[in-house]
Amino acid sequence: MKTYMKISLLLLAVVALFIRARYSDQPKDTSIKHLTGVVLPADVKTVVDNKCYGCHSVDGQSDEAKEALMWDSIPHYSKARQISILDNIAEVLDKNEMPPEDFLKEHPDAKLSPAESQLLKNWAETTADELMK
Amino acid sequence: MKLLKIFLAILVIAVIALQFVPNQMPAYTEAGKDDLVSSGAVPENISSILRTSCYDCHSNQTHYPWYSKVAPASWLLAKDIREGREELNFSDWESYSKRRKIRNLGNIKEEVTSGEMPLKVYLIMHRNAKLSPEQVSALSKWTDDLTNKILE
Q1: Residue A14 has what pLDDT?
Q2: Which residues of A, range 52-111, sit inside 8 Å of B by Cβ?
Q3: A50 within some domain
Q4: The pLDDT value given to residue B32
Q5: Using CB atoms within 10 A of its CB, is residue A18 exposed (0-12), middle (13-18) or buried (19+)?
Q6: Cβ atoms of residues B122 and B56 within 8 Å
Q7: DSSP, residue by residue, A74-118
Q8: What is the ipTM of this complex?
Q9: Residue B116: strand, helix, or coil
Q10: What is the Cα A115 distance to its own chain's centre?
Q11: What global pTM score does this model have?
C-alpha cells in the first residue's frame, strides 16, 4: 500500500510538472541569444522573433520546420553551411514560400509584409556575401 | 468472363484517353556556356558520374526515354524533371551566385550520401545511374573541394 501511494504521488508530481511546463504563464523568452557567429541587427531580429522563431526553434511544433532551419543552430555550423542556410532563407523569401500558406490561414498575423520580407532577404544575402569574403 | 472483357475495354479506352491530356515535357537544349560539365572545370571521373546519374533531371540535356511519350508516365517525368531543374540545373551552373553554388554543393553531398538521390523511381529504369559507394565518396569529396575553392 505504501509503495502504491508513493508511486501515485510521484505520478501526480510528474503530471503537475508537465502541466506547469505546458501552461506556465511566464512569458517565454523567444529572443535569439546564441547567434554569435551571425549577428542579427535589431530590426531584423524583431522580424525573426515575431514571424519565424515560433516554428524554427526548439519550441516549434513542426518537425519539418525544425529540420529545415533552427535559428539558434546557425552559429554552430560551418561557414559553408551558414552560407547555404542564408541563401536558402533568401530564396524562400524571394519565392514567398515562408511562412507557409496553410500556416497563414490559421495565423494571418504571421504574414510578412513586403518591407519585412525585403529586410530579411537583404540581410540574408549581405550576410552570406560577407561570410564569403 | 464477360465482365472482365468490359473492364479491360474500359481500361484500354481510359489509357488511350489519357494520351490526349495536354502535357508539356521540359525542353531539351544543348549545353551552353553556363554548363558545369562543358566548362571543363570538373574532373573527368566526376563529370562522367554527373552525366550518367544526375543530368537527366538536373540539366537541360535530358535524354527522354520512349515512355516519356506515354501518359501517365510522361506526367511524372515532366514533374520530376521540372522540379529537378528548378532545384539545381547544371546547365545554368556558371550563372549561379557563389552562395547558391555553395548551397547546391552542400545539398548534393547530403542527397547522395543519404541515398536520396538519384530518385528510386529513376533508378528502376536507369540501373547504371545507381551510385556505388566509391562514386558517392568521390562526389562528396568533390563537393567539399569545390566549396573550399569558392570560399578561398
Answers
A1: 64
A2: 79-81, 83-84, 86-88, 91
A3: yes
A4: 85
A5: exposed
A6: yes
A7: GGGS-HHHHHHHHHHHHHHHHTT-SS-HHHHHH-GGGPPPHHHHH
A8: 0.76
A9: coil
A10: 20
A11: 0.77
Q: Chain B residues with CB inside 8 Å of A83's CB?
A: 99, 102-103
Specify the pLDDT at position A23. 44
| B26-58 pLDDT tens trace | 888 888 889 999 888 899 999 999 999 999 999
Residue A5 lies in a domain: no
Is the model's pLDDT at A15 over the cut of 90?
no
So what's the pLDDT on residue A60?
85
Q: Is A7 part of a structural domain of the chain?
A: no
- Domain assignment present for A18: no
Q: How many domains does chain A have?
A: 1
B60, exposed or middle or buried, with CB in 10 Å at 0-12, 13-18, 19+? buried
Domain that holds residue A62: 28-132
Half-sphere exposure of B110 (CA within 13 A, CB side): 8
- B chain contacts of residue A132, beta-carbon cutoff 8 Å: 98-99, 102, 150-151
